[in-house]
Amino acid sequence: MSLRKAYFLIFLVLLVDQISKIYVKTNFILGEEVEVFNWFRIHFIENEGMAWGTKIPGEYGKLILTVFRIFAVFGIGYWLADSIKKRHSTYLIVSIALIFAGAAGNILDSVFYGVIFDDSTNNLATLFSPQPYGTWFHGLVVDMFYFPIWEGNLPAWLPFFGGKHFMFFNAIFNVADMAISTGVGILLIFNKRAFPKN
Q: pTM of the prediction?
């Protein structure tokens, strides 16, 4: 796969990711939900950038996470360029490009959203607001895709979880998260093709 094609894939993912986030941010109030199907909803939440809203505690936790991600993206970018230069498997290059695009998409939220949007609580956010909700590197990541496919109580005979309330799938995510998950999934499922033995 050529560098140009990899760049195009990254650009496409970033474009769709940012358009969907900006649309939701400017058309939904925080916590608002629209049911598309009974198993698929658009549900607007924001988080500090880790899965299931996990965060690094402390005053500088968010800044540490954002800076770490920026360094990680540079590392992934080097891995991508090196893999293309060495003509590695297309499976590997597509995977790295997707992971890079996804990580970069969420970094854009973290770096810029705090200074270009106002607060989404109880009102629609305004793009390029004169009263932004945060500061540089402290933006919140926009998530919206929610697939509560099944919800109920698990059978009592199941070990550990028996009789407990359970929902599949309770994560809320965005296009960038999907790109990262798809890239990792390709590496896991097509491992032998991504890393062929010479």
A: 0.89
Contact 192, 91 (CB under 8 A): no
pLDDT tens sequence across 121-149: 999 999 999 999 999 999 999 999 999 98
Residue 58 burial class via C-beta count within 10 angstroms: exposed 0-12, middle 13-18, buried 19 and up: exposed
Show which residues are catalytic.
143, 177
State the DSSP string of the chain.
--HHHHHHHHHHHHHHHHHHHHHHHHHS-TT-EEEEETTEEEEEEEESSSGGG----STTHHHHHHHHHHHHHHHHHHHHHHHHHTT--HHHHHHHHHHHHHHHHHHHIIIIIHHHB---TTS---BT-SS-SS-TT-PPEEEEEE---EEEEPPTTSTTTTT-EEEET--EE-HHHHHHHHHHHHHHHTHHHHS---
